[in-house]
Amino acid sequence: MRPLRTSGTTTSLRTGFPPVPLCSPWLSSLLPLLVFVLGSTACSKGTPTAPADKAAVGAQVTESASTPATDTTSPDSGPLPQIDSKRTFQYIKEIVAFGTRPMGSENHKKVENYITSHLKGDQVEDDAFTADTVEGKFPVRNIIAKYPGTKDGIIVILGHYDTNYPLRTIGFVGANDGGSSTAILLEYANHLRGKKRDGYSVWLVWTDGEEAVRQWSETDSLYGTRHLAEKWEKDGTLKKIKALFVMDMISDADLNIDRDTNSTPWLLDLVYQAAERSGVQSHFYARAGAMDDDHLPFVKRGVPSIDVIDLDYGYNNVFHHTAQDTIDKLSPRSLEIVGNTVLEAIRMLDRR
Ligand SMILES: [Zn+2]
């Protein structure tokens, strides 16, 4: 779970999610971008290439993170990347079948094994440690799979696999929140495995402890990525990262990826351009808002990062962090739209 920052305050999504945008789908298809400022009911017009809220993120994004290396709009005749969305959807079903999967639980261990069982023969590493939290000590394990490329540099794709700890008592299964992110990374591993990458190395990271154990705060959230970012800062890995993508809540049947104002502007634009290449841009950026998610520990350290997330899940966000986050709310088509778009964005980065 992550709160939304509105007007400098922190609002819990469970207790105080702002009103759903009043922008209708037909209207958003007529206008290039409708910026919905979370916390208000107003829709205003913007452009996809002009960051809607540059000032809001300027303090957090370094010069290197905010400057694209080259133009990425040059045409390309190559085939667009294609994931197997049915297989990805099946992964979500299998993950959900384990039940609620908070840190430290038996089901969590089962999902760890499920993930690693799909990575046999791949270069897999752990970033494992013990988190000291307000609810006690928990084992935390980020699982990293590395697929080497020919270019110097790394593209990182993160997705969390833990489910919300406080909601374990209601049997929260997180089909979208935890399930979809785990599944798309497994599918990306299929896509990357056994091929010579003519581009940057790609590292997939199934992150742990994304969710708060009690109530979201800077110290009670993002346990896995805070640890990983610190570790990668010390060992020099961060300097090699060309771009970092977070995939979270990407399978909502009613797909509307948010324009996250905490993300790096040129990466937001790159993803939009990638979406345009397959004509699915109407699913992107109708709303804008500041997301607190697994990318933040990296954003704070100047790594170009983007949170690919649809945080408006069900009418008035009614499915988010509730027992209603179940498989019937999801669509394989949404996985396909997001999954292919991010792969295309990576292909565009590889060509730089
Ligand atoms: Zn969550």
Task: Give an account of the 3D structure.
By secondary structure, the protein is an alpha/beta fold. 31% of the residues lie in helices and 23% in strands. The strands form four sheets. A six-stranded mixed β-sheet has the order 5-6-8-7-9-12, with helices on both faces. The protein is globular and about 50 Å long. It is built from eleven helices and twelve strands. Bound molecules: zinc ion. The site of zinc ion has 5 residues, from loops.
Radius of gyration, in Å, reads 18 Å
Biggest β-sheet strands, sense, barrel: 6 strands, mixed
Spatial separation of the terminal alpha carbons: 35 Å
Shape: globular
Bound molecules: zinc ion
Strand fraction: 15-25%
Order of helices and strands: EEHHEEHHHHEEEHEHEEHEHEH
Q: For the largest beta sheet, what order do the strands appear in spatially?
A: 5-6-8-7-9-12
Q: How many DSSP-defined strands?
A: 12
Whole-number average pLDDT? 84
| Total helical segments | 11
